[in-house]
Amino acid sequence: MQVHRAVAGVARRAVLHRSASVPKLPIGPFRIPLVCHLHASWEEHLTDQQDKLSIGKVFSLERCFSVDDVHSFSRLCNISDPVYLDSAGTQKHEFHACRVPELLYSGLFPAIIGTNFPGSIYVSQKLDFRSPVFVGESLRAEVKAISVRKFRDKYRVEYTTFCWKCGDILVVEGIAVALLPSLLQGINRSQVEGLKDNLTNSTCSVDV
């Protein structure tokens, strides 16, 4: 019996010595950084301050072309038709001023889309010209989104396109299709890639 008591006393002293030599660690909570992989659409995580394209949204641009604009465009496109180059040639065709080339003012449509959605690719355009445009006339071009769908890593958007002169005279109408890198207005391609990277591999922390 005395032997058992002696062994028990030695074992107890060993345990106490071992526990005294082990440093005490602080008890949680701890914040452990983790890499979070987000599987939802990256655009859903952006703030509501960003202006997002939706069906029915309208964008417009106003412009008035000068004689210098017409001459510069004619030189670039190698246009020699006197209807576009001098008022004398225009008067022979019963007009009183230089006529603006149709493709010059219809270029306002891709300008609107590219300005609001940098990096867009203009895919197609159907145009029906209704009335001539002359130098000095005020124009207002407008595009309206009528179809939006995902296409690989871009968005295929279909627009109605209209242009009026002098307030309410329709000069051209049609349908345009463009591929957009993002539905967020004013976001260019490099910003899109940066936002995707930041939201795909973002660092968060949890308490344990």
UniProtKB/TrEMBL annotation:
GO MF terms held by the record: (3R)-hydroxyacyl-[acyl-carrier-protein] dehydratase activity
GO CC annotation, single: mitochondrion
Gene3D superfamilies per the UniProt record, alphabetical: Hotdog Thioesterase
Example of a GO biological process term: fatty acid biosynthetic process
InterPro entries given in the database record: HotDog_dom_sf, UPF0336/Enoyl-CoA_hydratase
PANTHER family membership: HYDROXYACYL-THIOESTER DEHYDRATASE TYPE 2, MITOCHONDRIAL, HYDROXYACYL-THIOESTER DEHYDRATASE TYPE 2, MITOCHONDRIAL-RELATED
Protein name, entry field: MaoC-like domain-containing protein
Originating organism: Ceratopteris richardii (Triangle waterfern)
Lineage: Eukaryota, Viridiplantae, Streptophyta, Embryophyta, Tracheophyta
